[in-house]
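Exercise 7. Given the components listed, write out the predicted structure of the assembled complex. Treat all entries as one system.
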Amino acid sequence: MNESAKRARDIITSYDGKPLRIMEVCGTHTHEIFRIGLRKLLPPQVELISGPGCPVCVTAVGFIDEACWLALEKGCIICTFGDLIRVPGTEMSLAGARAKGGDIRPVYSPLDAVELAKENPEKQVVFLAVGFETTTPSACLAAKQAKEAGLTNFSLLTANKTMPNAYKALIGSADAFLYPGHVNAITGNGVCRQLCEEHGVSGVVAGFTASELLTAMAVTIRLLQEGKPFFRNCYPRVVRDEGNPAAIRMMQEVMEPCDSEWRGLGMIEGSGMKLRAEYADYDARLKYAMPVITGRPNPACRCGDVLQGKIRPCDCKVFGKGCTPLHPVGACMVSDEGACAAYYQYGGA
Amino acid sequence: MCVGLSAKVVRVEEGTAIIDAGGAQREISAGVLDELEPGDFVMVHAGVAIAKITEDDSAEADSVMEELL
Ligand code: SF4
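Answer.
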């Protein structure tokens, strides 16, 4: 172990101050922290809580219902990130829609869905655009490529989300945030600095390797001890202060802010992205004159409280009993980045 | 869906790049990076390079921990 890692480890294990609550906003952080065993290093006063940063988990039930409607009523090919396929909708998941004859295809990238549309001109292809600032540029790129190619058989069902207003909704729920590194890689650090300076919210941008998470945790614990609000970029090999200007330009060209419903957090003003009027032909809701579809989550599921760090997954009554990765009741048990799936997989340590 | 892939750029073509991630080569979009050259390292998300990166996370840890003094 090198000097920095040793020092970071010492800071973490020797902490004996007041109780601290640190929220890992990003679902991939939740998983990696479990996987590398970082939780086991933490002294009992340091509590890690999971936040709303898994795009699959915060996608509203109604969105799944809309996608099933497009598959079954309109006969569209639905292309989606694989994680969404088993997320329960009101009546069924996309896997259920597939069992009823819907054509549901997992893709790695929205650009693959554009290719599929090119190869199948007689079929209508819809890509399910979920995700934060990290993933939204790829959906925008897909819309732009489809428009440039003059495709008339490709559209997006959007539920893209942006983090700034979600952070504001979460103020007070933790002593510090571990900010999602790949969101900041796009947006830069301005919003996090502003949260620190104007709202006294502390946090660090964290990467995803064992070294990066260890370092980020040590910096957070040390600076919390100093008692003043702080912001640090602990992921400088990927995150620049200004973010990725070309990606920001791409998003602004193709999409614009809108209000958005978050599973568990409800409607958050200005926290979503939708296609601009110039891209109306690529907006599945407009293209198919979709009726208003409101989803009803399973009342037993407490994803909402999990996503706000109010309860741990194992505090949910059906965790590990009625709700398992094979038979998920809520979205947090489905995605690899979901907190309930992480607790289930790693034993809720 | 949010797990990033870090990879080395092997070739750059119009709007796309061929990357090498642990020996496997794959084509990705370079549509949201202003400049990219063979030999650069990138972080890839959903088939799109989202940031140029440096390869080494131990030098990063050193610089972050130094600042903490
Ligand atoms: S354990 Fe299942 S039902 Fe409970 S909150 Fe998590 S996903 Fe929802």
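Discussion: Residues 210-226 of chain A form the longest helix (17 residues). Residues A 300-303, 306, 313, 316, 318-319, 323, 329-330, 332-333, 340 surround iron/sulfur cluster (CB under 6 Å).
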